[in-house]
Structures are given as structure tokens and as C-alpha cells.
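[User]
Protein folding is very new to me. Any chance you could explain this protein sequence and its C-alpha cells? I have pasted everything here:
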Amino acid sequence: MFTLITRIFWRPRWRYGLGCLALVAGLLGAGAYLLTPYQELLRWYLGLNDCFYRAESWPQRFFTPAVKAQGNLLALLALALCSAGLGFLLYRWRRAPQPRLGPSGPGPGLAWPDALYLLGLLGAASGLWWWGNGRVVRGPDEVFSALYCAPLPPFQTVAYYMLPNNHLLFNLLNGSLFGGWADLVQTGRLLSGVAYLATVASVYGWFRGLTGHRMLAALVALAVALQFPLWGFGFQARGYALYALAHWGAFIGLFGYRRDRRGGWLLLNAVCCAVGYATVPTFLFFHLAQLAFGVLYQWQRRALDWRFWRYQAGALLAVYLFYLPALGFSGLAALTSNEYVRPTSATLGGFLPAFGHDLHDFIEYCFSNARLGVPLSEALALLPLLLLGARRDTAWFAYGLFYALLLLVAVGLMLGMRHSINQRNLIGHCSLALALVPATLYWLLAQLPAHWRRPRWQLGGTALVLLVLGRQFVRASPVKYPEGLYLSDNGRAYRAITDGLLPIRTGQRVAYSWESFYVYYVGQQRGLRGYLTCAPPLADYYIVLPTEQLPAAAAPHYELLTKGPEFTLYRRK
């Protein structure tokens, strides 16, 4: 799949031309923002759609005059970066060599016999997706994105960075591709399913190229498909499956470039890095490790690879331009000072005890909470570090070095932030760790004496470990323990809401507050006539969360009917 994508843009002048078009668009957008006064921008933005989540407080909480002033500085920076980038691309376009007769993709593709393995593997993964999608109820985070983010006009989708809408690219894709569909939760799950299947296929291709064994590659990919976070978020209408795919694409591109030095691999790596950042900003945890790997690897070779760094700079510029609408209309603080990144302790010493507990949880989560026990899970998590014992000129050592940097950067960033990120934000790390475990076993068994029939030990021992892990993963699956996806029991909440809505008969009208969106969605599934708008009409019932009060304009018209753990129900007088 990645070979096909990169071959589409194999002609250098095509790549430079597309880059120039993107930079010109960035110049025009940043210039328009800079030259347009605050009030005019405010009117233009609201003219796109003036009824969105908490629209009444948006000018006070997000797009304020102070944010506009900050956005002007960021737009100036964008103008400078785009101008420099445009000059560089025009220079490279003029000096680009004439294309060869055939496309020079990133490397050799898979052989035809692999198609049988891939068909069986993707069939099994599709079955896993279908089973999970039908058994696990929709969660509030999924519903929030589908109701408040994806249906907005595209510019508002990427410019309004309300929480938990931190999956901008995923919401943009869902809304752009399926905007006319009635249930964007289901289309979001389908989108995640496609990313999930692509990740599983990518794992197969990577391991097949690494070892040459199709059956073993299929077992590794199946184990990854069964891994709790990847499997679970493969049928969730959130961006984590796409985020994991971006990790794998960047990883494959990085090591493909290390192997044969073709620029197509760097293009793949840069595109996937940009996709990862645009989906969830915590892709920074992976990218910093990649940059550190580039420094150490080039230092080891005593050669500076300017081409590698140019692609990294291009990826970061693309990310900056993608987030510029959010920075300009929601403010830098929306990304850097929200509850998911603010320090949880005033001092590092006060943070360390909780962080030690979180590390154990991360490791258990990474290996699917499969009740392997913390010592065994930790042993598996650290096993790929043994690759550092390989010869330094081999790919095995490079994998060990990269994995060590992944761990060090993740721990270092969380210590520096004094904040442990959500477990699901490390879904890419967990997926790579699981795949590197059998790779390490394969390498270790290759070190046995030749008279021990090395190939048989390699295949048999590695396959046995994968089968044991796969069995444990199925026993602790996201279908059996769905509360592990968001660390909350959405199934219980869904049932409680369904029971609480029983007094409302089909055909009666129900108005909802902004924060009762989950109750609204459950009611829609029941066939209730609901209104989730900026100014809902007087309806037969009004629903708010237990922590909310009725809006002042609606309060005189309703009386309290019931107050439950999930919502408060008012009836019209």
C-alpha cells in the first residue's frame, strides 16, 4: 500500500509543484488573516455556521482580541516560513533531474503468494472489527466528535479546537467523506476500521521483508490485530487507529530509507509524520525519538544527511500550516494549556510516585491487560532493548536503538510535563513494541549454534510465543472489557440513559443542553425527536446533566420530573 502511494508522486517535479501549491495556499491564508481586522474575521467565521458547540461563549473563550493578536504573530511566522520554503522548492524544481522511464518507488513490493496470506489475515481482522463494532456501545467521546466536530464546515472543523476534539484530521475526513450520512459515529467507525486493516497489512509487509517468512509475518500481524488498544480503537469513531497507522507508516519509511537510501521512503515518512501530528499532537513523542535517532545514526556514520533533515523540516512546516487555523481562531493555550497537558503536580518529586504507578499501567495496557503479570509484561516491554547487542552496522541494532529512544523520549517528556498522558495516546508505541518482541526473539534464536537447527528454532519458538500472546489477548479483549478503552464503563451509562428515557414516548419533543449530547444520541437511537441546537424550541421535555441548571430562558416553562445519575429530566408545565 505504501509502495503504491509513494509511486504516485515518484516524479520530482510533481512533488515540488504540489509543495509549491500548498505553500502558496499557506501564504494567501496567513496574509488574509493578518490583514483582516478582528471584527471582520469574527463575522466571517460565524457566517460559515453560527450554531456550533457553545457558540454563545466562543468569542469570549476562544477567539478573543488577544488570540487575534497572537495569531497575527503566528501568521507572520507562517509568511516567513512559506516564503523560504517556496524559494527552496522553486530552486529544486528548476534543478530536478528528468524522470527515468519507470517509477522509482520506495522499494520492492510483496510477491504474489503474499496475497493469499494477506487475504486470510485481513479476513480475520475484518471479523474482529465486525465483532467488536457490534458488541461495544458508542462512547461519549465518539458521539461528541460525530455531533460537534465532523459536521461543521471544513474550516471550522480544523479551526475550533474544543476538547475532546483533538483529532482534527480524523474529524475533517469523517465530515468531508460522509457529511451527508445520518450517523457519523458509524462512518467514523468505518474510517477507523480501514486504518486498522491498513495497519495490520503494514505489519505483515514489514515483518515479511525483515525475515522473509510469510507464515511468521502473518502471525505477528495477527497478534498486533488482537492487541487491546489497536483492536479496540479500530472500531471506535476516534482518530487513534489512524494515529497508529501514521506511526507504522513513519516507522516503515524511516527504516526503508536506512536500508536503500531512496527518497520515496523519506516522502512516506514525512507524509505519515504530518498525518500523525494532524490527528493527535502527541505524535511528538514518536517524532522526537525519530529525530534523536537521526542524530545518533548520522553521528555513528560520521555523515550529515541533509536530505533526511529537509524532509523532516517539510513535515513540520506542513503540520504548522495545518494547525494555523486552530492557533489563529482557538489560541495556542487550547493546545498547550488544557487539562491533558497541564502539570498534575507542582514539583517533580510530588509527581514521581503517581508516575511510577502509571508506568506499570502503561506496560500492562501495552500488552492488552492480558493478566501476564507485571514482571512478565515488563520483561516483554524491555526485550527489544537486547537488539542493542547486535552488530552496529546491522538493521537489528538500529531497531534496538530506535526502540530505546522511543522509551527514553516518552518517559522524559512525561517527566518534563509532570503529566502522564492517556494510555491510548501511546497506541503507536504499544503496537511497535509488540511487533518488535517477536522480531527480537527471531534474532536471538538466530544466535544459537548452527547444529541446533537454527531456522526450526527461530520459526517454532517465535510462533509459540505469538500463539500464547494471541490467546491471552483474546481472553482480555476490548469486547469483554470495553471499559478499558476510555477507562470508564460506557455500557453501564448507555443502559442507564436508555432506562431513564423510558418515560418519554416516541413522537414527543425533547430539548437538550450542549453537554447532554450523549443522552441526545441515545434518544436518537430510540427514535425520539430531539433538538440539540443553539436555541432549542419549547419542547415537551428538557434534559440537562446533573451538574447543570436549566437555561434562564427555559426555566419558567419547565418543572423537574426526575434526576438520575446520568441526566436530569424536566417536563413542560
Notes: The chain has a mean pLDDT of 90. Residues 65-95 form the longest helix (31 residues). The radius of gyration is 25 Å. Strands lie at 509-512, 529-531, 541-544, 558-563, 568-572.
